[in-house]
Amino acid sequence: MLKINKLLGTLYLMLAAATATAGDYAKYYNDVTARTGISLAEPATPQIPDNTVNIADFGAAPDGITLNTEAFASAIKALAKLGGGHLIIPAGIWLTGPIELKDRIDLHLERNAILLFTPDKTAHLKDGKVLPCISASKRTDISITGEGIIDGNGEWWRAVKRGKVSDVEWKDFKRMGGTEADGGTLWYPFDLDGQPNIAPDYKTQEKMRMHMIRLTDCERVLIKGVTLQNSPKFHLIPTRCKHVIIDGITVRCPWNAQNGDGIDLSYCQDVLVANCMVDVGDDGICLKAGGGPAALKYPPVARVLIRNNTVFHAHGGFVIGSEFSAGIEDIAVLDNTFSGTDTGLRFKSAPGRGGKTTRIRISNIYMSDIRDQAIVFETTYQDVPVGTSGKKDNVDGFIPEFTDIQISNVTCRDARIGIAAKGTAQMIHDISISDCTIFCTEKIAELSGIEAFGEGTIKLTNVNLNKN
Fold first, then answer.
1. Is the pLDDT of residue 343 over 60?
2. What does the alpha-carbon distance between residue 40 and residue 331 come to, in Å, rounded to a whole number?
3. Does 394 have pLDDT greater than 70?
4. 370-385 pLDDT per residue, tens
5. Which end of the chain is more exposed for a tag (fewer CB within 10 A), N or C?
6. 417, 344 contact by CB (below 8 A)
7. How many angstroms separate the CA atoms of 188 and 66, rounded?
8. Gap between the Cα atoms of 15 and 10, Å rounded
9. Are residues 309 and 406 in the same domain?
10. Following DSSP, what letter does each residue of 302-315 receive, concatenated?
11. What three-state secondary structure class fits 384?
């Protein structure tokens, strides 16, 4: 029987403030136009009714053993009948399969709550497809909030490259069972001890890995406070969503996690990413807008503010690409720190998956211990899925055009290379880099296809490139 404690719900809303209200994020926008010359507005926030239920009231058990998939489905269905509300996940380990959010639902994880997704791959299958850990499609007013942890159990899904792990880690993976391939250079979580397969062979199963949180065609979304860790693939991927706020979340996985992207915004508009900590195995905070002619059915990524975030390990701290054929426009990246990333500001694409950037403004970026380039423009990027020699793109059109990008006030200590660009003046032009200090350990610059910095390509103004 459904139990709704109105008093508990009222106290919860007063003390936890799970759902932000209009105006809460205005402070992040007050100086944006003055600093960047572009106009951005605070995203609308989700409106969640006051109804509150507890997952335990639906037969769920926090013992890390009981599979609670049906309990989550029942709780969300009950809240949906009430017009929406807050689903409270108390302290404990709540093992579950896929969760699908509905309109006006807030999934709230209290401190010490761990939402753990089952390693049983069959529990994620529906009609022959693997579902994301948490998903929502064509929904309005949804949120995931709190101080708890969402764990995707990614080690049961991801392939592992021998060269990226220690001897101890390699032995740990082999203890799980699994399948070695390519002369012992790869390990696949196929034929695991005590776990069923969901495909006839390891290569097919590798292609079935899912994202942790995938939100598609949703409007008014809030992700706040939670920790996302150890996804089978990307951690958070809003796609074609409008009015999205990602505030104060932690995203983490092993540095060598295959395709372990942190926050990927695809075709999204009116977005704020603020106060987040990202430490992942692939791109940190990334903007994408599809590749090739199919991307033109959708709008560009537009009106995004990325502010006050810290990225530790990632292939890039802030990234555009590799696919952005629908375009990227009106983006402000302000007051962020990248410490230990492979690259700092990374712009990557290739013919066949490129598009055009417009009004990209980046300022006050602090970097340290950057393995490769502090700033890099790459127009010959190749997608190489694990176990393959590479994916050939359709190069008939869709040439990347990185343009109208202004980068200022970057301070970087210990990048191997200061600024790198690989492409032609057709693909990399009208870039402004000013008032920066970049301390390099190997090269101050690396150019290919562009003969020199200057007007029309990459213009440097008051940039101190200092080599040790």
1. yes
2. 9
3. no
4. 999 999 999 999 776 7
5. N
6. no
7. 27
8. 9
9. yes
10. EEEEEES-EE-SSS
11. coil
Give the global pTM. Answer: 0.94
166-217 pLDDT, tens digit per residue, is 999 999 999 999 999 999 999 999 999 999 999 999 999 999 999 999 999 9
Q: Are residues 451 and 317 in the same domain?
A: yes
pLDDT the model gives residue 14: 42
CATH code assigned at 433 = 2.160.20.10
CB 410 within 8 A of CB 365: yes
Mean pLDDT value of segment 60-74: 98
Specify whether 332 is located in the same domain as 444.
Answer: yes
Evaluate if residue 240 carries a pLDDT over 90: yes
Query: What's the domain range around 179?
Result: 160-202
- Whether 265 and 244 have beta carbons less than 8 Å apart is answered as yes
Alpha-carbon distance 51 to 82, whole Å?
Answer: 7
| Structural domain count of the chain | 2
Give yes or no: residues 447 and 307 share one domain.
yes
Phi and psi of 311, rounded to 5°?
-115, 125
The verdict on 448 and 309 lying in the same domain is yes
Residue 456 is assigned to a structural domain of this protein = yes
Instruction: Note the pLDDT tens digit of each residue in 85-124.
Output: 999 999 999 999 999 999 999 999 999 999 999 999 999 9
Do 454 and 428 meet the contact criterion of CB atoms below 8 Å apart? no
- Mean pLDDT, residues 393-398: 70
Residue in this structure with the two tokens 């057709």, named with its chain if needed: 426
**Amino acid letter, residue 448:** S
Q: Is residue 376 in some structural domain?
A: yes
Domain co-membership, 352 together with 450: yes
Contacts of 71 (CB under 8 A, 6+ apart): 55, 58, 59, 60, 96
- pLDDT given at position 391: 60
pLDDT digits (tens, 9 = 90+) for 416-435: 999 999 999 999 999 999 99
Interacting residues of 181 by C-beta distance below 8 A, sequence separation 6+:
187, 188, 202, 387
175, 202, 229 - which closes a domain: 202
Q: Please indicate, yes or no, whether residues 317 and 182 belong to a single structural domain of this protein.
A: no
Q: Is residue 317 part of a domain?
A: yes
Residues 6+ apart with CB under 8 A from 25: 42, 43, 45, 245, 247, 272, 274
In a domain, 81, yes or no: no
pLDDT above 90: residue 237: yes
Length of the chain: 468
- pLDDT for 371 equals 97
